[in-house]
Amino acid sequence: MAEASDPGPPKVSIGAPPGGPPEHNSGTPSPGGSPEGPPQGAPEGGPQGGPLEGPQEGDNRSDHEVYMEALKGLEGAPKMKLGLEDVKKVAAALGNPQDKYKVIHVAGTNGKGSVCLKVASCLMAKGN
């Protein structure tokens, strides 16, 4: 009987960031480019000098002027809606699994160790 060969560790592929263009790993040219170089119109060596990197070479504007111009470009952009409504909908669709766990969440910059020690001490004194 022939043994199955071990395929080795799984191959991990890291793709483009969320919302970004898909990564092309096939060796075929990406739109406007070739596998040997950047897409047409892209600077050699990758993107450089975004609006929040301050004035570029030959630009006589101050940092303040560059930043203010970048902020003006955000006018009319859709507002981000902050909140937990979507998270609550997903949790509800999953049957609110968070309600089944007995957890004490300790967060913050300082004092987590001492808070956890005190909580553990209280729980042990109570028999938990």
From TrEMBL:
- Annotated stretches, region: Disordered: 1-66
Concerning Gene3D superfamilies, the annotation shows: Mur-like, catalytic domain (3.40.1190.10)
Which GO molecular-function terms appear in the entry? ATP binding
According to the record, the segments passing through the membrane are none
Which superkingdom does the taxonomy of this entry point to? Eukaryota
Here the segments flagged for biased composition (Gly residues) are 43-52
User: Per its record, how is this protein called by name?
Assistant: Folylpolyglutamate synthase, putative
Cross-referenced SUPFAM superfamilies, in alphabetical order? Answer: MurD-like peptide ligases, catalytic domain
Say which species the protein is native to. Eimeria maxima (Coccidian parasite)
Q: What is the lineage of its organism?
A: Eukaryota, Sar, Alveolata, Apicomplexa, Conoidasida
